[in-house]
Amino acid sequence: MKKGLFIRKPIRAVQTAETDEDHHQLKRHLGPINLTAIGIGAIIGAGIFVVTGQAAALYAGPAVILSFLLVAIICVLAGLCYAELSAMIPVSGGSYSYSYVAMGEFPAWLVGWSITGQILFSTSTVAVGWSGYCVSILRDMGFHLSPLLTSSPIAYSVDAGWHLTGAFVNLPAIVLVVLIGTMISIGIKAATHFNNIMVAIKLSTIALFILLGFSYINWENLTPFIPENTGHFGEFGWSGVIRGASFLFFAYIGFDTVSTLAQESINPQKDLPKGILGSLLISATAYVATALVLVGIVNYTQLNVPDPMSLALNAMGSSFAWLKAVVKLAILAGLASVVLVQTLSLTRVFLTMSKDGLLTKPFAKINKSTQTPLFSSVVTALCCVVISGLFPVNVLAGLVSMLTLFLFAIVCLGVLILRYLHPEFERPFKVPLVPVIPGLGMLACIGQMVYLPMSIWLQFAIWLVVGLAIYFGYGIKHSKLRHS
Fold first, then answer.
1. Which of 93, 144, 150, 411 is the most exposed place for a label (fewest CB within 10 A)?
2. What CATH code is carried by the domain that includes residue 185?
């Protein structure tokens, strides 16, 4: 039995694992356009439709636009690193698989566990946002659902701490997750077609909101552009802009999920980098433009709500009543695509971790009739049902940003390590200006982590402790690499 927490998996072993019988059952359907659409489907969601309002109201004010730009720059640095590793190691598992090759099993487990938390919590956050918009649409139609069935029963605030709200469960969020879980269990081809339609609707809706909303901007709402700091670190001022950026890393989750679909990509070495970078650049442009219109129409102090875009649409007046309903429905479709892509991505990570022996065998089984990892799909959906049904957006989004920053920093570090240890590896795509770009990406991510509140660091620590218990209780004893 091989010992040591940092035993690395040979790159040939990782690539060979993709050709075994179980992996081969996953069909290759995805080209560069589909991969870019999947990336956009995962990225554009709660970042625009939910979290933008909170970042503006609590941290940055109108300068949330600068926060989005700052995040975009850092994500481009990380995206270049993802592109190099995904082309060099075009396998499922994404950053988990890259870490296994570059740093060893224990770091790979931490990355895989972080991906698990990132996707579970981000998917649940989006589902909660979807619920908010769904309730808003039903209210416009004259149907009033009880807050007891549309709100999270558990809440957290700085003043009150953890407390019960009196609600029973967020039922609309649960219904969405169940429907999406059923779809990804059926097969990736059907899920991809659904996602492509949703992305087209989503981008059209955002473009329409920007074009129509621009003329309704009250430029006084952008003054002062950077509100004066309240005297507390991270509450407006330049520290608020940076903390807002840390919070908004949640909004850019998605381009990294493209890297987990290597097994279903037609030409992964060429198409994965295109999907990663293309989806990131398109989404970043949409974010900045939408943030400008949103904070221009509605004063930032009013945007700490689950459905800030609905607030902006209502502020535009009654002349576009029919359009507001259409836009809200399109937002529902867009958020649904995020839930779909994120849950789909996590099932592929579970599949790879199970093949390595770090998770139980059922996670690696491919259902013969659906050609999907059915057990992984069901477990993922059930976890999201529990989280989205019980917790509100503000409890989940900060932890997602922390996990995302951690993963991005690890990927940047992985590029540096593999350039040093294995310069002989073929690299169809190369990060320019190494070590500058990966180094800057890693330092920027760590710097953004520092700006997140201590409460989020505590949540991050608790999540890692749970992961350590699973690894030392099960994974380290069943690792196939250790027993090979």
1. 144
2. 1.20.1740.10
